[in-house]
Amino acid sequence: MALLQLTMVPMGEGVSVGDYVAEIKRRLEAEKAVFHLQDMGTVIEGDISYLLKLLGKIYETPFEQGAVRVVTNIMIDDRRDRAVHLGDKIVSVTER
Amino acid sequence: MALLQLTMVPMGEGVSVGDYVAEIKRRLEAEKAVFHLQDMGTVIEGDISYLLKLLGKIYETPFEQGAVRVVTNIMIDDRRDRAVHLGDKIVSVTER
Amino acid sequence: MALLQLTMVPMGEGVSVGDYVAEIKRRLEAEKAVFHLQDMGTVIEGDISYLLKLLGKIYETPFEQGAVRVVTNIMIDDRRDRAVHLGDKIVSVTER
Amino acid sequence: MALLQLTMVPMGEGVSVGDYVAEIKRRLEAEKAVFHLQDMGTVIEGDISYLLKLLGKIYETPFEQGAVRVVTNIMIDDRRDRAVHLGDKIVSVTER
Questions:
Q1: Counting one residue from B and one from D, how many pairs have CB atoms under 8 Å apart?
Q2: Cβ(A84)–Cβ(A47) below 8 Å
């Protein structure tokens, strides 16, 4: 099970890109995804096959909103020895 | 003003690395840094000169704990037109 | 058209992970992908729909080789105003 | 010894940012740094204390050229068990 952090940076669209993030948020809600908006990206939980399929669905969002060039950063933490949920790691570290 | 997300992945130290994150957390607290632990890394706020100096201070942490090889990912969102604080972007997007 | 940089870091598998990179290379060759091995990852060129499908095919590689936890970093530079090929940007910058 | 990949993406400066990369290249040459321009960033070799100091010197480059907001991605592969040089990993993998 995995967590996937998605950060999409449209270039040439001005310095404020909150409208792009807001539209990704709406689409993730429509997909009933389990996710957190965070300061440096949106983190989504699920199995990798689900996450990659979801990525394919939302990836076009900024282009559909008019962006011509987008630099995307994705970080995936995927472990197969146990379930992984949003917030787990923070609880685990805080308890040490 | 900037936000810096720091993710350090020690290799060859087993699949659980919470002790490494916990030690970075302790050092950031000792430095009185303004930061959030998040699922995919630790996000710290401040001016870039402060953040790079702080990075230099905490970067050695996993090596001091015994790691021989560490892959580090850093993402910095630095804007000079206004102040940037942890959580601001999430509030901004949620209000749209 | 896009470039996608893929960096997969298996945790708990020792500090040397060249065998994992070599297997990804073999699979990309079998897929006849256009790619470069680089110091910090493998960069592949193509349209995004092709690249995401290819990612789905090779992503399981380190898990099939025994890794239990893998941290993956993906950077995509996708522009829709013109074709993008491996090496183009370096030529463009060097000529300035 | 470490390799550091630096990718700076100025926002709101148009979709072509080769002038920014070219200026970073000039400054790295002036510093006599050992580096490679690559498709997804510039990779520099050295000890981490040297690399972080160098980062401090070149980080302001796009802001000095007029950018107001820059998203920077840095990936560091730092191992303490042996020397690491640009191109080593590619040779090692190709020989397998």
A1: 64
A2: no
The mean pLDDT of D30-47, rounded to a whole number, is 97
What string of DSSP letters covers C3-19? EEEEEEEEESS-S--HH
Residue of D nearest to C87 (CA): D39
At residue C95, what is the residue type? E
What CA–CA distance (Å, rounded) separates B89 from A18? 7
Give helix D48-58 / helix B48-58 axis angle, nearest 10°. 180
3-state secondary structure of D89: helix
Question: What pairs with residue D45 in β-bridges?
Answer: D3
- Compute CA distances A4 → A50, B8, B56, whole Å: 11, 16, 27
pLDDT, block means (10 residues), chain B with 96 residues: 96 85 96 96 97 97 95 97 90 82
| CATH at residue B80 | 3.30.70.930
Distance CA D25, CA D41 (A): 11
DSSP labels, A42-88: EEEEE-HHHHHHHHHHHTTHHHHTT-SEEEEEEEEEEESSS---TTH
3-state SS, B12-80, equals: CCCCCCHHHHHHHHHHHHHCCCCEEEECCEEEEEECHHHHHHHHHHHCCHHHHCCCCEEEEEEEEEEEC
Query: Is A23 strand, coil or helix?
Result: helix
One-letter amino acid of D47 = D
Under-70 pLDDT residues of chain C: none
Instruction: Give pTM, 2 decimals.
Output: 0.96
**Count of domains forming chain D:** 1
Q: Which chains touch D (3 or more CB pairs under 8 A)?
A: A, B, C
Residue from the list A12, A17, A73 with its beta carbon closest to the beta carbon of D15:
A12
Q: If 0-12 CB within 10 Å is exposed, 13-18 middle and 19+ buried, where does residue A50 land?
A: middle
Domain that holds residue C65: 2-94
Neighboring chain A residues of C70 at a CB cutoff of 8 Å: 76, 78-79
Helix (H, G, I), strand (E, B), or coil: what is residue D67? Answer: coil
| Partner-chain contact D73 A69, CB within 8 Å | no
